[in-house]
Each structure stands twice: as C-alpha cells, then as structure tokens.
Write a structure and sequence with these properties.
The chain is α/β, with parallel strands linked by helices. It is built from eleven helices and eight strands.
Length: 286
C-alpha cells in the first residue's frame, strides 16, 4: 500500500507504552479468546465488553510506568495516522456529495487495556468503535493474532480494511443507523436481533470497500495483493469460519457479524460499485 508522504491525521491519541492506574479489565487466556471472538470488529457490540469482562475477570492495578515507543511502533503510528486521514478525506467528500455534514472520529492506539465511554476493554477485545465518545480503539497486536491464529494473510492493507470497517461504524452513528438498529433489537428475539447485528456489520464492510474505491481514485494507493489482504482478513473473521475453528460446528442463529462469504461479498460490492446507495444490507441480507 502506498502511503508514505501523505497527510497524517491529528485526531489520534497514542497511548502505547503507557500504563494506567485504577480499575482495569483484563480478558486473558481462554476468556480473552472468547471476548476476541465475540467482539472482533466490534462496532456497537463494544458496549457489551465491560459487563462480560467484569463477570469473569476484574482486578485493580496501580501501574504508572511508561516506556518510549520503538521505531517499529513509531512507523505503525505514522501509518495509522495516514489511514485515518485517508478515511477522513474520503468520507468528507462522500458526505459533501450527499449534502450531509461530516464529523471526524478520534482514534486511540493503546496497549493492554483501555478505558472508554463504553467501558473498559483489554486488547483481547480486538479493534472496536465506541459510539459514546465517537472513537476508534486499536491495539496493533491484534493484527499478529489475525495472521497467526485466524489464518489471514496479514499485511498493511489488512490494517487498512480493519480501520475502514471501524470508521464505517462511525458513519453509521452519524447517519443514525446504529441508533435505529438498537431500537429495533429491543423488540426482537435473540435470533432476530442477531440478524440485525449482522446487517450492521456487513454494512460496515461495504463502507470499507466503498472507502477503498474512493481512496484509490484520489490517491492511487493500491499495490498488488492489497485487495487480497483485505479479503483474507474478511474471510478469517467470518462467524462461520471462527465458529468452525473454535468449536467445530457452525450455529447460524448465533451469527452477529456475517459469514466469511458475506463479509467478502459486501466489501467487494462497495469497492466495485463506488455507490453508497448500494449498501442497504438490511434489505438484502436474510
């Protein structure tokens, strides 16, 4: 992916290397894996992180130590700031084209654990968006987990896909989609509520593809293999792929994010169409 020398966003807070005092929520070991599977690309589900983690593993800490960032972490930070700027620029354009007002989200890079307006979370929760503070939270160690534990190809565009997906949840917050889904879920049974969650997540995948389309036109960023990296990441985090790997069977009624096939399809639909009006997953996902 071609990104060096491009604009970097100022809407990033880098907390890596910092340890926070007070209450922290740590989902280590088996519990951490469970939370990772439940909340990967968490979106609105990030609000559920706190009660689930508190049920299993809550502790106090008074750590105050910090360390300087490594050169690799500094490069990662520059890359993430550039990705965020790419997303800001594309979505500003899309909103202007549709006579809408855009508001940029914040992004927090952290290590280990973090406190958010949606509650506390550990790195095991995976990247997520918190609508309470309109902020994307990312622990970069997730991408190594994605590659080694879930079989994704890895690479810089896998990071770009995840970032664009989480940014998509911010777009859903701005457009009121997330609020409508929560209201509908309150009156549905679990299986029906899960279907709405799937549609919400697949729309975020569509938005990630849409961003890729626009950003390629603006910045000619793509290199050979980039789209394959995104599709590999989408394939790895499909509900069916995760359930089959972790429990040996697939339970469709429990899906909350969509199958591997669905996730790849909706990313590709956004990428190939370049049309925000093609992203009505709520009408087309059954």
């Amino acid at each position: 992916m071609k990104w060096i020398g491009k604009r970097q966003s100022d809407n990033v807070e880098d907390r890596r290397g910092m340890s926070s005092g007070g209450k922290t929520l740590v989902g280590g070991g088996i519990i951490g894996i469970i939370i990772l599977l439940l909340n990967v690309f968490g979106g609105e589900n990030a609000q559920m992180i706190t009660p689930v983690l508190e049920q299993f593993n809550q502790q106090k800490t008074t750590q105050t130590e910090s360390r300087p960032l490594t050169e690799e972490e500094k490069t990662e930070g520059a890359f993430v700031r550039t990705l965020l700027a790419f997303n800001e620029d594309v979505w500003t354009q899309i909103f202007e084209e549709n006579n809408l007002t855009f508001e940029a989200p914040k992004l927090v890079l952290f290590s280990g654990q973090v406190e958010t307006a949606c509650g506390g979370a550990s790195s095991a929760s995976g990247p997520f968006y918190c609508p309470g503070d309109k902020t994307i939270y990312m622990d970069m160690s997730f991408f190594e987990e994605l590659r080694t534990k879930f079989g994704a190809k890895g690479g810089d565009f896998a990071v770009a896909y995840v970032m664009a997906h989480e940014f998509g949840h911010h777009i859903q917050t701005l457009l009121g989609t997330s609020t409508k889904v929560r209201q509908l879920q309150a009156n549905r049974n679990e299986a029906e509520a899960n279907k709405l969650s799937v549609a919400l997540e697949l729309q975020a995948d569509f938005y990630a593809g849409l961003w890729t389309h626009y950003n390629e036109n603006k910045n000619a960023m793509l290199e050979d293999g980039d789209i394959e990296e995104a599709l590999s990441a989408a394939n790895a985090v499909g509900d069916d792929a995760i359930q089959k790997k972790m429990q040996g069977q697939v339970v469709p009624d429990s899906f909350t994010h969509g199958t591997s096939e669905q996730r790849m399809y909706w990313f590709n639909r956004g990428f190939k169409s370049g049309d925000i009006k093609k992203g009505d997953t709520f009408s087309e996902v059954h």
